[in-house]
Specification:
mainly beta, Pectate Lyase C-like, 3 helices, 48 strands, 3% helix, TAT_signal, transmembrane helix, Ig-like_fold, membrane, CARDB domain-containing protein
Length: 638
């Protein structure tokens, strides 16, 4: 690979620009200067912009002791991807952002890493929040993968991960047993990982933990302690489609994963699940979890790349004011926008440049840029393009934003890329909204199982909140014409989001097929569906004697071979008993489980009595559903 370099080059690192290493990888590279957002000073910092071409992968390998920092990758082209690998000692990846969905490529993750021996590797102020191009778990990738050979300490600080179709942080393999592994620790601190497919954070070695992190949302698991003893410290874990899987312990696939233990302290989580009876979860939730981004954690690729190492990405602004910036792609032309605000608006210049290296300043296009006050409200807008942007200082709530070319322009609030809806929500004061839309539970039945009588019927419910406030309340499952309540749960759904919930109950073992309505209800909505429950399966185990060792001498063992056939329609478990004599004395038994249309063969027996004369008597075998018998002879001793 063109960027892989050896130890012989280490002495030259001070003299050779890092840009030299980054060339020749199918990427266009540029340098961007900006004013550090945490200050109004004129001290500028610099980062490299690397645009990866469609279908190509930017590859880079870190050496021992190397720091890779201040890089903004643009992988918005289809199939463009980044492959960073750090597998030595005392390396650092810092101030790196990836803009656009990372192509799935052939590698397992965007960053693949391990740390040697007693050394420490650091990943800090990194943004991996635009996800990957995969649309299913089988075709996706992780943001960060820690390989089994990891034996040192890996620290992740102020890392933002979201939208990956595999595990967000996949760091359990250093504790694996199926491959050679070295048990290195992984510490995740002040970071955010959300809405990744398999799990958001997956750890698996003693001493590994997540601390002061928000682990939020996704279809499967939030925090997954796969092997050994891992910890969740002062974290919020929630927003999962299945709230009970916010924290998951272990996995049946390996004997070692069946011994995993997770301990949660000073953390808030919606639920915890152990996969095996041998797994253990320790801890209680410290209240309802809430979504937040830890201080210093970048929420855009640009914010990560331009950081000065402090994690302070927000500009210094007058109290109550916001910096609103409309920024364009280099190919944008005459991209228009407008917005409304409750308070005064003025043109300004952002204390940083756009990712293209161009200025972000409002009022420069005199013919199009405008600010006006209408009936006490403020209305502003303009036109820009070519990688430039327009900026405004806004005092008060922003109430509406319209962008004509959303594929060519995005909007930033205080230096952070945000959706218009997020900006309206973050700058608004709910108490000042004369017509807030209350949160509500809009419920719909997504899936219903079709059990036999006596089996569990499960109903998967989608719960959507279209309102502006969090909706919390009961969701109930009712069955039958008389709407008998058989299940329910208390569910909290954030504004503009949805959750799934599975409710169910054990059906009655009906003797014939039946249909009846099932209904899910919230305080705001209801949905109903007709379900079918098939007749309960028949359990029937018929015994037959297929052989014996009779006649036998007195005192010898009498053995009877038995065939127990399942003539019913469901798997059946029953006891087969051996009875002897006219009084049917039980002398042996065995319990068997037999599938439908199958049979079990077994041998039952006992030691005969040492009689003096020849005797003949009946021997029978019985189950709950039938019996069979034969006469046997025992020769006396005389």
């Amino acid at each position: 690979m063109s960027d892989q370099h050896t130890k012989s080059q280490e002495s030259e690192k001070e003299q050779i620009s890092r840009r030299k290493y980054l060339m020749g990888t199918g990427a266009a590279i540029g340098s961007t200067s900006f004013l550090a957002l945490g200050s109004r000073s004129v001290v500028a910092a610099e980062y490299d912009l690397i645009e990866v071409n469609s279908g190509e992968t930017f590859e880079y390998r870190l050496d021992n002791g190397e720091t890779f920092e201040n890089v903004l990758f643009d992988v918005s082209a289809t199939g463009a991807s980044v492959d960073l690998r750090a597998t030595g000692s005392d390396w650092t990846i810092r101030n790196v952002g990836i803009r656009g969905e990372d192509g799935t490529g052939n590698q397992d993750a965007t960053i693949i890493c391990a740390v040697d021996g007693t050394s420490t590797g650091i990943i800090e102020n990194v943004y991996l929040g635009d996800g990957d191009e995969g649309r299913a778990h089988t075709e996706g990738r992780s943001a960060i993968f820690v390989v089994p050979s990891h034996s040192g300490t890996l620290e992740l600080r102020n890392v933002y991960i979201e939208g990956h179709t595999d595990n967000g942080l996949y760091a359990s393999d250093p504790g694996h047993t199926a491959v050679p592994s070295n048990g290195g620790e992984v510490h995740v601190i002040d970071s955010y990982s959300g809405n990744n497919t398999a799990s958001n954070i997956r750890l698996g070695t003693d001493g590994s933990y997540a601390e002061n992190c928000c682990i939020w949302g996704g279809p499967h698991r939030g925090f997954w302690g796969y092997f050994e003893h891992t910890e969740v410290r002062n974290c919020h874990v929630g927003g999962m489609d299945n709230p009970d899987r916010a924290i998951e312990v272990g996995e049946p696939a390996y004997s070692k994963s069946g011994q995993a233990v997770v301990k949660a302290t000073e953390s808030s989580f919606s639920g915890a699940r152990v996969r095996e009876s041998t797994n253990e979860f320790i801890g209680d939730s410290n209240g309802t979890p809430e979504r937040y981004v830890p201080d210093g954690c970048p929420t855009s690729a640009e914010a990560a790349a331009r950081a000065d190492g402090t994690g302070d990405d927000e500009p210094s602004l007058p109290d109550g004011s916001s910096l609103l910036a409309f920024v364009t792609e280099p190919d944008a032309s005459l991209a228009g926008y407008e917005f409304y605000a409750d308070g005064p608006v003025e043109f300004t210049e952002a204390p940083y440049d756009s990712p293209s290296g161009d200025s972000i300043e409002g009022g420069t296009f005199v013919a199009e840029d405008f600010i006006e006050e209408v009936d006490g409200a403020w209305h502003a807008g303009g036109v820009t393009g070519g990688g430039f942007g327009d900026a405004f200082l806004v005092d008060g709530a922003i109430t509406d934003i319209q962008i004509d070319q959303p594929d060519m322009m995005w909007v930033e609030l205080d230096g952070q890329a945000r959706s218009p809806e997020e900006i309206i929500r973050e700058t608004g004061d709910e108490d000042d909204d004369p017509n807030p839309v209350e949160g509500s539970h809009q419920v719909s039945i997504a899936e219903v199982t079709e059990p036999r009588g006596g089996e569990r019927l499960d109903v998967t419910v989608r719960i959507e909140n279209p309102g502006d406030e969090t909706a919390e309340g009961d969701v109930s499952l009712l069955v039958g014409e008389d709407s008998q309540e058989v299940g329910g749960d208390v569910v909290a759904v954030e504004p503009g989001t949805a959750k799934t919930l599975t409710l169910g109950y054990e059906t009655y073992p009906v003797k014939q097929d039946v249909e009846f309505p099932v209904r899910v209800e919230s305080a705001d909505d209801a949905d109903e569906r007709t379900v079918a429950v098939a007749a309960a399966g028949e359990e029937r185990l018929e015994p037959a004697i297929v052989d014996s060792n009779a006649p036998v001498d007195a005192g010898a063992a009498l053995e009877v071979a038995v065939r127990a056939e399942n003539t019913g329609t469901v798997e059946t478990t029953d006891t087969v008993r051996l009875l002897v004599g006219s009084d049917a004395q039980e002398v042996d038994s065995a319990t068997v489980t037999v599938a439908p249309d199958d049979a079990a063969t077994l041998t039952l027996g006992y030691a005969t009595y040492p009689v003096r004369q020849d005797v003949e008597f009946p021997v029978s075998v019985e189950t709950s559903d039938g019996a069979a018998s034969i006469d046997v002879t025992v020769y006396g001793r005389n």
